[in-house]
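Today's session is about reading a structure prediction critically. Students often jump straight to the picture, but the first step is always the sequence itself: look for stretches that repeat, for charged clusters, for runs of hydrophobic residues. Only then move on to the predicted structure, which in these notes is written as discrete structure tokens rather than atom positions. Here is the chain we will use throughout the hour.
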Amino acid sequence: MLLAETATRVGAQLGGRAGLLSAALLVRDPGNGDEPEPSGVGVAATRRAGGHYVISWIGDAHALSWDGERLIRRTTPHTLAEQLRVHGFVVDPATADWITTALPQATPATVLSVECDDSLVLLCSDGIDCIPANELEGIVRDFAHEPQALADSIVAAASEDAEGYRDDVTVVVIRAPEEG
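Below is the predicted structure for this chain, in token form.
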């Protein structure tokens, strides 16, 4: 909770990248070696003058935006599976959970950012990966003007995998104010 609050408070003032880097500082101290190594991932969005969003992330947190017709993935997970996929390798699904860069390794070069002008942005945990893309897009289409109903519907759509595991699904819906 402290990491999320730090990222949010600093991010609101200085931008998402600064917020995530500030949260990272809280888990960078290696301690004396007796405690478990801390970890964490994050995604943040800030709305700039002119209406565009700056989305920053590290790890396998996701951001998607809705342009009124289609859902667009704005982030790329920092996982072994994604690195292998980008380089043309066949991916073992087990590598999807192997995070290659997380908050303890955060630097200005590893906290990535992207901009978008869409009026609806979803910040999500990696649990949304269990929802088929066409189903997720349909949910967004149906509830794009009802942020709370949209978040509730996405969380409810998450299902168990073949082994009976259901990953957690966290969703924050950011909807720009209507113009006019």
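Discussion point for the tutorial: The chain has a mean pLDDT of 89.
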